[in-house]
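Attaching the record inline, Q. Sequence:
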Amino acid sequence: MMTGKGIALKSVSAILVVAFTMFLSTVSCFAFNDDNDKEPPADSVKLYQESEKKFHVSKHGPMIELREGLSKPYLGKPEEAADAFLKDYHDMFELSRDVSEFKLEKVERVLGDYRVKYRRHYKGVPFFLGGASVYLDGHNRIKRVTIGVLDEKELTGLKTNPNVKLEELQELLEKTHPELGHIHGTPELVIYKRDGDYILAYVLIVAVNEKQRRFWDMIVDADTGEILVKRKGWLED
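Structure, as predicted:
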């Protein structure tokens, strides 16, 4: 038969066990949430893999956007993780399987996360506008993606060799627009959308007043030499 003293000791022991268990549980919670740079626990990886099917993807205007999603953690650098994600889900974003049309432009830090920016190309020529941005957290989990929509049929028949060669551009502008100055820097050949059609064009800077560092930002049709866009601006250092 247990005495009153024995019952009291047993009660105290039970209370200590409960308290210690609660303490371990609290420490465990802080261990999982305290440091974003730590590797996620093994059981959470399974959770993220299961949550991949919960991505919300919408198509609005010329953009496809993924929001409210959190992928599994990807290995490697942020740009390697972004590449792998786009290849895994190329169908979701209406991309080719190897995603070769996107070339890495830069990787930025944004409020503790990463943004991997791509520029889209067609047969080696970049688009004037249209690319992709992939946002990742500190564990290489993809949080958000925005990609420009492109219908390959719209590019049918587009040649990538311009009628006006780069070395001929300055001479052409001097003949057709003698009031303009010389080209500053090297023009870039791009794919430009004009009136719903894709054409080849040069993006360039032409001097207005070099002493005052005033210049024209211009877009010129690479086949006809027509000036499509002409905006006055200031050259940045």
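The beta strands are 56-60, 63-67, 102-110, 113-122, 125-136, 142-148, 183-194, 197-209, 214-221, 227-234. The chain has four helices and ten strands.

More tomorrow.
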